[in-house]
Amino acid sequence: MSGNILSIKDLVIHYETQEEVVEAVNKINLDLNKGEILGLVGETGAGKTTTALGIMGLLPPKVGHVIQGNIFLEGEDLLKKSQREMRSIRGKKISMIFQDPMTALNPVKTVGDQIAEVIRLHERCSKAEALKKAQDMLAMVGIVPERYKEYPHQFSGGMKQRIVIAIALACEPELLIADEPTTALDVTIQAQILDMMRKLQKDKGTSMILITHDLGVVAEMCDHCAVMYGGEIVEYGTVEQIFDNPKHPYTKALYRSIPSLDQDVERLHVIPGMVSDPSNLPTYCTFYDRCEECNEECGKHDPWIVDIEPGHWAKCFRYTPEWTGTPVADPAETQGEGK
Amino acid sequence: MVKYIIKRILLLIPILLGVSAIIFILKTFTPGDPARQILGNNATQEQIDAKRDELGLNDPVPLQYVRYIGGVVTGDFGDSYRTGEPVLKEILPRLGVSGIITLGAVFIGAVLGVLLGILSALKKYTWVDSLVLVISMFFQSVPEFVVGLFLILIFAVNLHILPANGIETPLGFIMPMLCVGLASIASYTRITRSSMLEVMGEDYIRTARAKGQTEGKIVYSHALRNAIIPVVQSIGTGLANSIGGGMVIETVFAVPGVGKYIVDSITQRNYPSVLGGALIIAFVLTIINLLVDIAFVIIDPRLKTTIIAGGAKRKKAAKPKAA
Lengths: 339, 323
What we know:
The structure holds 2 protein chains of 2 kinds. By secondary structure, chain A is α/β, with parallel strands linked by helices. Helix content of chain A is about 30%, strand content about 25%. In chain A, helix 4 runs parallel beside helix 6, helix 5 packs across helix 6 and helix 6 packs parallel to helix 7 (about 185-205). The longest helix of chain A has 18 residues, at about 185-205. Chain A is globular, with a radius of gyration of 21 Å. Chain B is mainly α. Helix content of chain B is about 80%, strand content about 0%. The interface between A and B is medium-sized, with 30 and 20 residues.
């Protein structure tokens, strides 16, 4: 824990089209310690990928806008950097692994060239040296280096993701953002890829943001965990805190949705309702409509952040001293400890 | 790959046989007697009969066909009825002229079209995009001969920098090339634009951006090579269309090209020239198609595997048959 590598303050990101404004990310605050892995969990549309693209400076041009906030990488605000400065940061200081390895590689370029490209961009070396290093990277991710002359279609899905990881790690970035790196892969390959990522992360001391909707992956890999819902982080803490003592009703509901091996249940728990429409977010708690523990207050104001214990907070009225109402239903107190 | 090319070249044989057979049959059923055409209206019936004998027109059609193919194999496409010269000797220089104009036109059209297409894709929905659309549609909508006449008016009559017609100097090629090329810009622009828009939205473009690559290099080195594939396809068709179809332009600029030669030969019932011209154009087109297919494989490595795999599959399928 040698200080923050990444610090996000009050970040707001909107997607603006002629018809509507989509509030994808609303005032999120995040800190990532050097050498740690932060899990960013949430369902589709929660704003996980938008946050990642915001950090990378890769929001879709003209549509995606950072409305306010700061993103500090080692104390420097990335949002104040010019395009040119961002280009020298992308791939070198921060790199990203994308969700679908099938489409993330250029089909008409050899994998060696694609790895060498990022090396040549950020390191002063000849083409031959870059290709040599690209082969070393292939070996590092467990692919025969001689295959550097082959094209992406000649590799399997898991292999392609290894190549994508090789590209991301080629310049030894300080921060690696992995956006659902195993979602597109089958389960046996998922474990391989995750094992490899953790090993490389440990070896190089890379800090990492792991975006996923798989709580199992978070438990396996991460040090800290942030739960996102409706463009906000609703709960944050260490993995132990979040898993042993989940506080936000959404986090609790997520746990109840995980199938249990030792309980015999007919149906999985389903969180009722839909994610709130990000183009028309409520002024009150975004989870109010689906929450099983809310009271009338929750439907009037936006809740604020409440510290549960050191390093663990939740964005919910339930834990404020002012909380008076009795919850509509409270099955969570007993089941929350189910882990 | 070599195997594939050889196979494709062998495929030429049935194609050319088919083309020649169709034209031969058409020729047989076309009214009008070439012998009378050659000798004129004052010739006596005996003279015409003698000429028909000489030309072999009284033999059965299949025999005529076999005799003709026999000649073609040895490079003899027959003699022109009109001039008595060997057809091949008349066509080859004209084919060269048409070939130069076509290549130049496709080059102008494709280069300008692809550049404009990239520009309008990158500036989509802006005034640049609309302007490109208007310009390219303009040249597509106005008939080639009108553009040709305007070019003559500007460059030959007023500016005196290019000859109005003929190809006595290499400068004479410029206006015909421009004329055909400008007309084809629109289709290349449209194909490039849509293909480019699609490719720029691909995940691997985002990967390239995540590497810190510059936007220019992304367009040039990552996107274009993927986006150019449908453009190459249409370059092939463009070449095919204008090599034999340059009649109008060849007339406007008084250029001795193969298109005009064939049309003239048809009106003169000069069958050896028509047949020879059609066969040679069919041959050239098949070669162009082959080159386009080879270009595909060079641009898109995925196709190489498909071709090799396709060959292997066929081999496997053939084995049980042999056994």
